[in-house]
Amino acid sequence: MADGNGILVIGEMAGDEPASTTLEALAAGRSLLLSLPGEKLSVVLAGASTTAAGAIAIAHGAETAYTAESSSFADPAPEAMVAVAEEAVRLASPRIVLGSKTILGRDVMPRLAFRLGTALAQDCTAVDIDNAKHLLATRPVYGGNAVATIACVSDIAVAALRAKSVDAAQPDLSRTGEVVALTIDIASTIRVRSIERVEQTSEGIRLEDARVVVSGGRGLGGPDAFTELDKLATLLGGAVGASRAACDAGWVPSSYQVGLTGKTVTPELYIAVGISGASQHMAGCSNSRTIVAINKDTGANIFKDARFGVAGDWQKVFPAFMEHLKVLLG
Amino acid sequence: MTLKIVVTAKQVIDPETPTSAFGIDSNIVTVPANQAPVVNGFDEQAIEAALRLKEASGDAHVTVLSVGKGFALDIIKKPLAMGVDELVLLDDPAFSNTIDPTVTIAVLAAAINKIGSVDIVLAGRQASDWDNAQVPIGVAEALGWPVATVAKKVDIKDSILRVERVLPDGHEVVEADLPAVVTISNELGTPRYPNMRGIMAARRVQPVVWSAADIGLDLASLKPAFELVSLSKPQSAVETEMITGDDDEDAGRKLAQRLRDERII
After folding, report:
1. CA separation (Å) from B39 to A74, B10, B80, B85, B146?
2. pLDDT digits over A292-324, tens only?
């Protein structure tokens, strides 16, 4: 075990600022440091412009911000980010590396772990330190039917946090830290060449930003039902989501998918209609403030996570629900 | 030249198994014996991707590799029934510890090296037991190959790999030189069902079985990354209020009223 070299967060950018997931990882890092007295928290950020981001990361608890600034790091390719992360690990020689299970993190963190001679503790919902100063990673497994805690016993531990598992801290602008600029030539590292990116334009509110999400699943029986869900989403100023089953059936585009292999949403209100609540799906919505479920199967898993549930035929429950809401909302 | 394709496939507990059937015994997840395991769903999609590549190239050989211990032969032979050419089971008591990706990565990389001159490795984007999404990427690292993840379309033209990767709001087209690793997502489309001829043919084929010694792997040289501390049943923190009414319509109206009363809407 490398002694006393603290924690390095593999950061990500959202525009010119650290992504919310990176602020969450910094908060997780600070709480782990309570068990590692005298050790430091650092972060690595790669982007087109990192000056503001470095300062923000320091206000969120980093003692050192390693920054790689170049136009080629705007929305970096995974291979470029791995190279940046490796250089930061070399300089910081941390005992723990923390990242996030994001689109980029999903590609970067397993590679980084392998190059550091270990494996990635993936999709962690909680992290802790044991008496031997090993990282303890807790995560749902088997579709949420079990929770595993693993001790990372390599010389260096690498973990990726599930988004919104840890609350970001309030920034403390009085904190000071050092910014270390990294110079990295990535040209030789890129072997997967990005040819084009095709954005699917969607109208209305982004699913990830919506205050209300109305989601439909296999129980809806067909694509037409989503027209009804759309009406409620419009009424409540929200967005429509779907389970993987509904997307795979071709009822709605895959960009609607909420779940482990789709989007993670955290609305104030998540209304699940005809969704059984397999943990594959719940992984994408379980941090919603209030979950409401309508499902004909009284034993459906979704009712375990729902604050309010109606066990009934959605074709009868849902229109009456919507009509009465209209009355209530005047 | 024959295009040599390897697909990695894992036998897993059927993710559709009802929650009530899951148990935990001595830090191992159990299901009753009548709950048959399945080939991991994303891996079936990787097999589908391989068969499409084979059909497009006209001259390809598809080998499926599976790491584990205690295979259910009728289940794990499904790829043969779907139309792959060969099934190799990496079956050794030392491979049974699947919580540490380090072991699985080393086993698969050694097996791919033993097969030799492989052009492309296809794998499901993640397995439905631990959802690590890690082994295929690790295999690419171990082999020193590029990797493209979460693909919905895979083509090879003039030895250049072209992949459409799924993004949250669209897709990205990437290219790489072969050999390479590609992980496959469900957006590729439904895997083909084995037809009767495939099922009959698969019955006559026995899988090749390799042990750690067969692939020249000294597992003692691998440093473990993880130790399992505990495995437990999840606790639900939510108290559910089930809303009933005179009929379904009435329950729907009462739900609206409750949400209004609680100032949720």
Report:
1. 39, 6, 12, 17, 26
2. 999 999 989 899 999 999 999 999 999 999 999
Asked if B120 and B161 touch (Cβ cutoff 8 Å), the reply is yes
Q: Which residues pair with A272 in a beta bridge?
A: A215, A293
Domains of chain B: 3-221 (3.40.50.620), 235-265 (no CATH)
CB contact under 8 Å between A263 and B168, yes or no, is: yes
Query: Which amino acid appears at position B49 of this protein?
Result: A
Amino acid residing at A16: D
Indicate the angle between helix axes A314-329 and A225-235, nearest 10 degrees: 20
Selection from B161, B128, B187 nearest residue B10 by Cα = B128
Peptide bond connecting B15 to the previous residue in cis, omega within 30 degrees of 0: no
Identify the DSSP state of B21. Answer: G
Model pLDDT for residues B108-144, shown as the tens digit of each residue: 999 999 999 999 999 999 999 999 999 999 999 999 9
Q: How far apart are CA B50 and CA B108, in angstroms?
A: 17
Q: Using an 8 Å CB-CB cutoff, list chain B residues near A325.
A: 256, 259-260, 265
Q: Choose among B124, B138, B127: nearest CA to B182.
A: B124
CATH architecture of residue range(s) A7-189: 3-Layer(aba) Sandwich (3.40)
Closest residue on chain A to B183 (Cα):
A107
Contact flag A316-B252 (C-beta cutoff 8 Å): yes
Interface of B with A in 182-201 (CB under 8 A): 185-187, 190
Q: What does the pLDDT look like over B83-96, one tens digit per residue?
A: 999 999 999 988 87
Q: Is A207-329 in the same CATH topology as A7-189?
A: yes
Residue-range domain boundaries for chain A? 7-189, 207-329
Other residues' Cβ atoms within 10 Å of the Cβ of residue B84:
25
Give the burial class of B58: count Cβ atoms within 10 A of its Cβ; 0-12 exposed, 13-18 middle, 19 or more buried. exposed
The token duo for B1 is 């030249």
- Residue of B176, B239, B257 with shortest CB distance to A324: B257
DSSP A63-102: SEEEEEE-GGGSS--HHHHHHHHHHHHHHH--SEEEEE-S
Integer Cα distance of B226 and A193 in angstroms: 33
Tell me the per-residue pLDDT of A187-200, one tens digit each, with 9 for 90 and over: 888 999 999 999 88
Question: Strand runs (DSSP E) across A235-323, as ranges?
Answer: 239-242, 269-273, 290-295, 308-311
Residue B191 carries which DSSP code?
P
Cα separation of B183 and B185, whole Å? 7
Type of residue found at A112: L
- Was domain A207-329 assigned CATH 3.40.50.1220? yes
Report the run of H or E that residue B4 belongs to, with start and end. strand B3-8
